[in-house]
Amino acid sequence: MNKSKWLTALFTAILLTTVVGCASTAKQEGTGEYFDDSFITTKVKAAILNEPGLKVTEINVETFKGIVQLSGFVKSAADIPKATSVARSVKGVQSVKNNLIVK
Known about the structure:
By secondary structure, this protein is of the alpha+beta class. The protein has three helices and three strands, in the order ααββαβ. The protein has a three-stranded mixed β-sheet. Strand 1 (59-64) and strand 2 form a beta hairpin. It is rod-shaped, with a radius of gyration of 21 Å.
């Protein structure tokens, strides 16, 4: 019986360590959030690629907890709100921070 209690306690400790280790904090994503953000980033890049006039090679897309940050260069000032609109249209995007600069 004593050995059974010890194994149960050990299993519980390992389980709690695993769960807490994968949890997110204010500055770090959990495992699930990381994959969600990677998926959002890919979808935003694909949407920019399909938008005429925007060059996906010159626009950097990063996502953290559903917040997309756009940085890089565009040809004209009209392309800045266009890129923001395209990013906002992707499912899962909570907000967009736009740091694009006109070349």
